[in-house]
Design brief:
This protein is an alpha+beta fold. It contains two helices and two strands. Strand 1 (12-18) and strand 2 form a beta hairpin.
């Protein structure tokens, strides 16, 4: 629990059914540099879970083309 507003620290999970398959979909903290201790824990949790999934879907700001390369280094 944190009294700091606007921090993502948990994974939000849902199961999606498509045809004869089901998928777990997770939403998590964005991966970035932060000085916020609580947000940092959420980012650590995100990175830990990314290493165990089959597919990663990322949303990136087109203003920062380096972000994709940084994420790739973290994941792989």
């Amino acid at each position: 629990m944190s009294n700091i507003p606007g921090t993502t620290r948990d994974l939000i999970e849902s199961e999606v059914f498509y045809n004869n398959s089901s998928f777990r979909v997770l939403d998590s903290a964005g991966i970035r540099e932060t000085d916020d201790v609580v947000e940092g824990k959420g980012i650590e949790l995100t990175i830990a879970h990314i290493k165990d999934v089959d597919v990663v879907v990322g949303v990136f700001d087109s203003v920062d083309p380096v972000a994709l390369l940084e994420i790739k280094e973290i994941i792989f």
